Amino acid sequence: MAEIRDPYETLGVSKDASAAEIKKAYRRLSKKYHPDLNKEPGAEAKFKEVNEAYEILSNPQKKAQFDQYGSTGGQQGFGGNYQSGGFGDFGGSGFEDIFSSFFGGGGGSSRNPNAPRQGRDLQYEMDLTFEEAVFGKKTSIQYTREALCKTCGGSGAKKGTSPETCSHCGGSGYMRVKRATPLGQVVTQQECEYCQGKGKIIKEKCSTCHGSGHVQEKHEVEVSIPAGVEDGNQMRLQGQGEAGENGGPYGDLYIVFNVASSDIFKRDGAKIYFNLPISFVQAALGDEVDVKTVHGDVKMKIPAGTQTGTVFRLRGKGAPYLRGKGTGDEEVTVEVETPKSLNQKQKEALKSFAEASGEKVRGEESLFDRLKKHTKR
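Structure tokens predicted for Chaperone protein DnaJ (377 residues):
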């Protein structure tokens, strides 16, 4: 069996690295050693080694096998490639192949390695302003993805050639292996070490993708963001993910929206909230004021005697319903502002108002009152 280099060491990641970290390392190294970009001696061999390492670590089954046995071809730590003898005659033939069906060596079905498989899904984070989320917009985005190699059409074989069915596993991608145990001979099913479970062998690899069938590409796509999206919402673009295997479709692209907050408005779904400061006089006598909305300023009447905290509703001045028809409302909360500094004339006017209302206000003394007190001493 051919020796397998440590894929973690090849990609420069730890054994507890996440799938995203593994993929990031692979992309960086595959770009660094790609023969089209790196003409140094040994770059092509390094590129191949990086691809083989990623092929192991990106496949949960192969990764688990390597983590346990140090190989993707079988259980080297227990019995190795033992085929017969040893404990095979322990206790007579009654135990022969007794555990076969429990270890996948019986008549159980396996997945077809040549069946079409959809490509991986991708995620893209998009930043939006408050207004862009409310009204939507059309834009284009660019990102890197794995696409089908145009030279070989995704087969991985040199132009004019085709992959051949693996003669060792007959195209199934799996082989039956017998191991001796104290209870008899155990037949297990494991991934074919010659074709790495693909069922096919590429004798002459494509010079562009080096047998992977995929290449890294910068992809651009037009996006129509619907009006009414909110922070954390996501949108699926079918077929804009990574290329599939064996003629399978491309995966999908999920766009996650990060919506910025507004300095003026607050939003909950289709409803928008706005705080409107008004003066004491406007609240007492009533007024018609300009109110900001996401659709522009509108006129709103303030009835005489309005109290602070009163809520007014502007129908249809909110955000569009994302999954429905129509537009939400804007709720305007009135905040009556108390003046912080008054001139003498304003103070006298308020005192007169208080006296007319029968109120006795103990506010700041006037200059006249202070002088009066001073002369009595």
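The radius of gyration is 37 Å.
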